[in-house]
Amino acid sequence: MLLFREGSREAFEELFSRHHRAVVRFAWRMTGDPSTAEDAAQEIFLRIARAAPTYLPTAKFTTWMYTVARRTTLNYLRDTKEDGETVPILPEGEGEGGVYPLQLPGPDDRNPEQVVWEAQLTERFRAALGELPEGHRAAFVLNRGDGLSYEEVAQVLGVTVQAVKTRIFRAREMLLSRLSNDLSA
Amino acid sequence: MDCRDIRESISACVDGEASPGEMASVREHLASCERCRVLERQMRAVGAGVRQVRRPVPDRFREEVFARLESEGALPKRKKVFPAAWRWAAVPLAAAAGLGLFLLTSREAVRGPAKPGPATARVGTSAPAPSPQGNGEAISAEDREMLVLLDILEDPVDLDANDDAEGMDLLAPGDPADSPNPPRGGRSGA
To answer: For the segment A14-37, what is each residue's pLDDT rounded down to a tens digit?
Structure first.
């Protein structure tokens, strides 16, 4: 990024090659719509390029990149919501104190780790992911999908590590409540 | 510890983010709670599910991004490495060529118009040299013999002492006055 800031086009091309898959994937997991995800991912790279002159390496590049990515996808989700579509965006922290029902399977149920992620189940999972509050979804996707630590997720989302821990736990509970039949069938 | 209180710690354990104290509590709890053991496995499965949500990136994505970046002027122009390099290389190359041409022509000019007469040989050349007159005349057998003799007679020690030895022309038999650079050190010929 620093080389790009100094005017190296090749540096940006390298940056793009390294990260574009992760950015598109993140946008897809956050928006749940291929077209919106691609538009958002394009916008993310535009913002990265525009921000280059003022970029300061105060954190890992990927942390900064996901911060841009998350804000951009959030804007797209808000725009989509304003257009009348039903994309759930709950205020930050909503559900923090709520109780989510978790239907636990009986002791004879199959080990969920052995679940084969077939296309149908993946689609149901994606739909369930899309129903999570945006802040919970972002925390869960960044940690489990993109491999960021709680600390890094906290930096991206601008919250405390404890808040990240809680959001990820809540996200898990909500997903399990929607998918428990699939995971324990 | 109550199941309800330990679930968040189980989630953190699954992510490898629990503190040592939390991990010990979770381990202790799971050892005695079948429901939470199942929950722990489900939490792992749900985490793996996120990575299943993926799509291939369309081939056109890159072109579209770079087209937008270029239209906004947000991307530096691609450097044309070879043309630029050749342009810069052309200057010294042209200078060198010009200098070489100048040296060649000036050398010819200094030697004066071609006329039959003395043949010259480069010092250190063991083989007979062609006629430098540039008139295409072949060197006679007699001249060639004389040139070889000159090379043999040339004293290398003496030549080493002379800075211009490398470029010094030796006159072949003939009129010394024809030479534009009269030989130095008394070696004006055989």
So the answer is: 899 999 999 999 999 999 999 999
